[in-house]
Amino acid sequence: MVENKILDKSVELCGVKLDNPIVPASGTFGFGEEAAEWYDINVLGAISIKGTTLHPRFGNPTPRIAETPSGLLNAVGLQNPGVEAVVTKVVPELRKVYKKPIVANVSGFSLDEYRECCRRIDEVADIIEVNISCPNVHGGGLAFGTDAAMAAKVTEEVKRVTTKPVFIKLSPNVTDIVAIARACEDAGADGLTLINTLLGMRIDTRRRRPVLANGTGGLSGAAVFPVAVRMVYQVAHACKIPIMGCGGVSSSADVIEMMMAGATAVQVGSANLRNPYASKEIIEGLDAEMERLGITSLKEIIGIV
Predict the structure, then answer these.
(1) What is the Cα–Cα distance from 22 to 45, expressed in whole angstroms?
(2) Which residues, 6+ apart, have CB-to-CB distance to 37 below 8 Å?
(3) Domain 11-301 classification at class level
């Protein structure tokens, strides 16, 4: 037990200071406006806002969500109001109630879209998180994040038009995530977020068709946590830039484990959908978990394994 000592939960991402490492993951917390009605969201280390594209998107047809043991599948389809609305309306409104760092998650279907969306959102973000799991519409539909050369190209393009730290969010649906992580680092990425969802599917056996209208969707939740920890560990040992760990985190103990694997900050995703207070409760439980393990500073355990 740690007695009579101040527990330091603060971390730093490329010069951006967080009071604690907990960041609600993009797509699981909206733009923060709903949660602000339930509790003081300033307890959060940062917020990764809902994924933003250059143009407004309605998203995929329904059903978009399917439950699975220890997780869920989603095929929402990046529904969002578009970058112009996010920059001029959404983030300014969020800033009125939230005084901590904002991570802007950006998606695109071409290099031009990534570049322009990042250029525009740079005005209002503290960190830009680039989701490269999108299909390249000019490159045969292959997701940017499944090819090291394409991942590097996206990184180079957005770095040319941004002034804020750029974190590339990596897809786990690859044979060698380390190769892609290194390609992004070499291309100038300031940090990495991993992992995004794993591709999955459920079938309605009575109707003899997929449960999701899209056919397949992204698997998230506790079921993917060991995969996320493994990938964070591998990338942390191969790259020198900071990592935001993400994937199945649902407790304070999970946060400690993810940080020991190499994450500087930890995103909480599907747990927010099951329990809107999940991120807050995880933060509240960190002191007890640190005391139990004899940890006085979270910075000291990053990548300790």
Answers:
(1) 5
(2) none
(3) alpha beta
Q: Give this prediction's pTM.
A: 0.96
Could you give the 3-state DSSP secondary structure of residue 161? helix
| Span 250-287, pLDDT tens digits | 999 999 999 999 999 999 999 999 999 999 999 999 99
Report pLDDT for 2: 46
Measured from the Cβ of residue 15, the count of other Cβ atoms closer than 10 Å reads 10
What gap in Å lies between CA 53 and CA 168, rounded to an integer?
A: 15
Report the alpha-carbon distance of residue 132 to residue 151 in Å, rounded: 7
Give the closest residue to 232 by CA, choosing from 195, 183, 185.
Answer: 195
The DSSP H or E segment spanning 204 is strand 203-204
Rg (alpha carbons) of the chain, rounded to whole number: 18
What residue spans define the domains of the chain?
Answer: 11-301
In the annotation, is 118 catalytic?
no
Q: CB burial class (10 A; 0-12, 13-18, 19+) of residue 79?
A: middle
Token pair belonging to 220: 């998230």
Among residues 117, 118, 134, 246, the one annotated as catalytic is 134
Tell me how far apart the alpha carbons of residues 232 and 213 are, in angstroms, rounded to a whole number: 32
Q: What pLDDT is attached to residue 178? A: 98
**Paired tokens of 81:** 């109001």
Length of the chain: 305
Q: Which residues of the chain have pLDDT under 70?
A: 1-4
Of residues 11, 29, 26, 51, the one with CA closest to residue 263? 11
For tokens 């459920």, name the residue.
202
